[in-house]
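Training component of the fellowship. As part of building independent skills, the fellow (R.M.) carried out the full modelling exercise for a liganded target. The chosen ligand was iron/sulfur cluster. The inputs are recorded below so that the supervisory panel can assess the work.
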Amino acid sequence: MKAKVDPNVCIGCTLCTQICPEVFRMEGNKSVAHVDIVPKEVEESCKKAAESCPVGAIKITE
Ligand code: SF4
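Fellow's submitted model of the complex:
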């Protein structure tokens, strides 16, 4: 599974970095996915972060 943040959509609320810091971190005022492949053990929290994003900036792909 992979996750990607659209920097044109992210409003920098930091929510995803709190829910799943194993995948997301703030770089400047935007979140980025800092791993290429989402580790199995954090897939659920990564999905939760994507669902929780208020602007739908996180795309999950297999
Ligand atoms: S939850 Fe969405 S808007 Fe907030 S920092 Fe993460 S990607 Fe950006």
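The panel noted the following from the submitted structure. The pocket of iron/sulfur cluster is lined by residues 5, 10-16, 31, 53-55, 57-58 (CB under 6 Å). Strands lie at 2-5, 24-27, 30-33, 58-61.
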